[in-house]
């Protein structure tokens, strides 16, 4: 096994369900493994298993699809050292690449061409203590920071963090209701009432396909 080989849970083609490119046909590369255990996690099947693949093999599979959008996700993709090389090689091929990361692992060396979509874990996620706040200094205007909100306390906490770190001035801020926990309409009304400079988002893929894996 080469150091650049990666353990892959799945590679699939679907519509982007979240973030700034929502609705665009995208190839998803889901890496296996995650050091976090968020209580709302919908990809726990990616905690283990998977198949070892070379970066060349991954790129060959991606090339089968006629899209310029690639999302590297997990699990927590940065938990695998070879992820950085994968990101760089995908960018070299001219793809528009986004990285979905928990924010618990250092992002300072992520290739500047990659769009970072980074979570800030709320109290109700049960993983707030894993937030690596030094990561916030490495976000720029092309990046996005995401809050998954489970209740009113999460909303208040997220507003406070936005103000404390001036997040809306650093990058785009996403507020997403945890499905089955936070009513989306209620969250939308809170955002409007407080005139927050955030993008409200729901998980489009779940409305289209439910919790079916690989969609």
Class derived from helix and strand content: alpha/beta
Biggest sheet character: 9 strands, mixed
By DSSP, the count of extended strands is 9
| Named CATH topology | TIM Barrel
Q: How would the global form be characterised?
A: globular
**Binned strand content:** 15-25%
**What is the CATH C level class, in words?**
Alpha Beta
In spatial order, strands of the major sheet run: 3-1-2-4-5-6-7-8-9
Fourth-tier CATH superfamily name: Aldolase class I
Give the SSE order as H and E letters: EEEHEHEEEHHEHEH
Distance between the termini: 29 Å
Instruction: Tell me which CATH architecture applies here.
Output: Alpha-Beta Barrel
The Cα radius of gyration reads 17 Å
Return the average pLDDT rounded to an integer. 94
Count structural domains. 1
Q: Please tally the helical runs, counting DSSP H or I stretches of 4 or more residues.
A: 6
3D architecture notes:
It is built from six helices and nine strands. The chain has a nine-stranded mixed beta sheet with strand order 3-1-2-4-5-6-7-8-9. The two termini are 29 Å apart. With 215 residues, it is of the alpha/beta class. It is 25% helix and 23% strand. The protein has one domain: TIM Barrel (Alpha-Beta Barrel), CATH 3.20.20.
